[in-house]
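yo

u said u wanted the structure for the complex thing, so here. seqs first:
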Amino acid sequence: MFYFIQLLNAVQYGLLLFLLASGLTLIFSIMGMINLAHGSFYMVGAYLAYWLAKLSGSLWLAVPFAVVIAFGIGLLLETAVFRRLYKRDHLYQVLLTFGLILVFEELRSILFGDEVHGVAIPASLSYSIPLTDTLSYPVYRLFVTAVCLVIAGLLYLVIHKTRVGMMIRAGSSNREMAAALGVNIPLLFALVFAFGTALAAFAGAIAAPMSSVFPGMGHQILIICFVVVVIGGIGSINGAMIASLAIGLADTLGKVIAAEYSSVAVYLVMASILLWRPQGIANRA
Amino acid sequence: MSPITLPRSLLIAVVLLLALFPMLGTTFYVQLGAKIMIMAIFALSLDLLVGHTGLVSLGHAAYFGLAAYALALMSPKYEAASLWLTLPAAMTAAALAALVIGFLVVRTAGIYFIMVTLAFAQMLYSLFHDTALGGGSDGIYVQVRPELILWGFKPLDLENPTEFYYFVLIMLIAVYAFLNQVLHAPLGRTLAGIRANEQRMRSIGFPVFAYKLGAFVLAGALAGLAGYLAACQFGFVNPDILAWHHSGVVLMMVILGGMGRLHGPVLGAFAYVLIQELLSAPALVGPYAKHWQLAMGALIVIIVLVLPHGIGGFIDIALRRHSYRRIRSGGAVET
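structre next:
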């Protein structure tokens, strides 16, 4: 039973990673852009949820508003800053987004301070299902798992079955050709970017009641998402899904077996994938 | 392309200035100077990868930090360790880590390379942060600075800030001269070729993987030298020096000064640390001194958007315009 609970945790963590990694991998492959500030959007989402929940008294209201605000921030940043970077060397993309991280972190520090803030789980979900006499599982975590699964399913449908999805796939495999065929590339880029931002903020907002909100929360998860993207292969949503679950499992199992070295387990998975398939599990060489 | 190094007369003038500086400045400024020169060595080592080989590493702080930890772990508690023993050992530790990590990361390129170098640096960070190794998240002290003993006498006492400053200056000159030699030697020309066109170098028959790995290890060892000096100076090491923030800062120095030229990273280190000192001086910015990273972040964004080749590139372009004007007005031009 103990391992069953750990498995549930692993899946829940993996799916949360997927929300971040899918946006990251789409931005990588379609715009050819490395975005270190993606983790900051996760933090922005979490802090917005904390702040709006305090204002409105309800997380149900806070999360949609947080997502809409994040989408707006994404659109604004894309048109004002990121758009100028797509054709530049990765080096400058790294630097600029590094600068943005500093800005976001300090704004967070000025607006919300450096303390850890808790976010209350909505009353309707704040109970646990008893599994044995001593062990139980919080319903909120199950809820998060379910929501992530629904979003992953929707993402799959949008990308594989709709016209926008077709444009995204076309833009991802050959940007110039897609533009030549009449796809409005600047608009598509802006939407994909803002969508990725909103997805990251959503992940932060729903994770806030579980992890609480704290300084630097975006950094940790960003690097794990990089690992996910490296393992899954850039541009592959399916690869990101497999890799997210694998990392969720490696991290959770690592914590159970050797808590101190659990963070290393994740990187060892990455190292072995690099030896075996440097282009990621889902991409062909 | 602009030359890798500055004219000799200018270099000698800069070295003289740096050598005379401790006579003017107070202890605070002498220590600041030493700190800047340590960061300059660190930035030089990173530029070997970024500017000269075309490998954008976002995990370079790993080797800096590893060597710093190596010194901290090797130092006996109440007596001085020998510099002749600990410095090569710390640099070897950094080089070995770079060899193992490099073996894995050099097979990737582009965005992958950036992400993977970052991830492995983060792995070392978590290792030192989460386990008891090196005092865990609290860090570890270097109680007594290592001793430099040459034929039974002590030419420089590293406990003394001014003498430590000179030791760092000698190291900076040595690294600069060494890289100047390397970059003008066949090795450096090969690395430049790999940066310009890797496919072509491979088809000519150069073992590109081995060269890139070699550059990675060399850069790691030199970053280790900087880390060792930093641990000496501050007498304290904690996991933050391995963190990606530190890797980002040193990358910023390289770009700020202009990559691919030896004076660039040095200039960048000076500029970055001085800007940081200005932005975090309560006398200048009042209550916002605590939040200096806000202005620094905004500055980085603006520099990337406005000055694509760093301050060094900006000066180059200004100089070129100047000489262009002189040609047009009929004056002679030195080349």
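Residues 208-234 of chain B form the longest helix (27 residues). Residues 280 and 289 of chain B are 4 Å apart (CA to CA).
cya
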